[in-house]
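ok trying again, last paste got cut off:
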Amino acid sequence: MALAIEFKNVVFKYPSGTAALDGINLKIEEHTKVVLLGENGSGKTTLLLHLNGLHMPTSGEVTILGKPVNAANIDWVRTKVGMIFQNSDDQLFAPTVYQDVAFGPRNLGMDETRIKERVEEVLEVLNITRLRDRQPGALSSGEKRRVALAGTLVMDAEIISLDEPHSGLDPLGCLEFNDLLDELHSKGRTIVVATHNVEFAASWADECVIMKNGKIVGRGTPEDVFSDAEIGRLSSLELPSFVSIYNELEARNFVCKRGEAPFDIMDLVTKVEAPSIKFFENSEGLHKGARVALAHSRDSWVVAPEGTSDGEILTQKDGMAVVGLDDDSAPKKGEIVIFKVHDNERYDERVAERAKKLIESNRGTKIGAMGTNAKLLAKHHAISLDFGVDVINKAISYASRGVDVILLASGNMAEYAGKKVYKICPDIFFHYVNTKDEEML
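nice, full thing came through this time. structure:
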């Protein structure tokens, strides 16, 4: 895979002589999601500011898509790399949202007809057309963040860098913004985020880069980084809550998948208890190999006087037993149908009718939507949704409890959803419905 970004022994010193970056060597591949983590003053924001030439190295070199970031290339670089600042007010200055988003291409001399087409297209993609004539200063934090992102996308930036993108957003706004970043990544963008939010980093990133005192002290997948005690020691990195819980459960021998930190709550659940294994306390008098029937009582498993979930005790120690369920006793799981909505289908009556037909023929299912086109299809055609944020985890949660799910998913988000379902819980059956192939319905 080609490189999107490369830092070659980069040093950056402020006029005072303080080194904010101290010998940074970093390669980021195209179409990846990378998070920079570290305490205040570690160099995260300074590194981001080098991506589009707002800072230039004191020594060393930064390249974007193979070209050096220098005075000769700076205009080209800034069409390829867009940056969203922590405070969106720092980059919103025009009287209206439309004028703000149009500023970049207009500054480059783009034809006005083409500017209008591009701006209207980006506003629709980000679902902010309604804000077109509003004053940026009167918008909410989440709306400002989307407008700033629109100003980046209208330039057709291939690389998007964001500094603390969740700052000022409420929990729902954070989840919605995460979904938006996933959608942009599914369309081929490389995304680099500087953040303190370790929960987001663990569940979202392909790779985490850990910084301290202007140096990179660790990097790797979230599972690797948050499992490495040495990286945590060097960086004073706070662990995500679900990793801390996993570590405590692992120490007590309550996990069935050991040695690799979970990347979110749902992954923690699958690591703690396999679908065919149950744990229960107060098992005195029982022994390995004994046959038992289980019942669920007050959020825990107990031996049932006569039950339907039969299994064999795999191990028993200190009053804690682990029971392997028989194949026909394991909880039945629901199915997930992923209905793909292509880019040109958001207002398509025929596609909407097929979605409604699928939903009608599967009564009792939970309906979710991820991605702008899928959500617009549901909104425009009055398709009632049960959930629209944190969609994949909610779908897995329902299916794990035996409830069938239909997901409306925009374009490449459909494949992204399928891959994540399989990664977290490979025993859940899912399949795609491609709206361009009527036979599949």
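cool. The chain has three domains: 3-235, 276-325, 336-440. The first strand starts at residue 3 and ends at 13.
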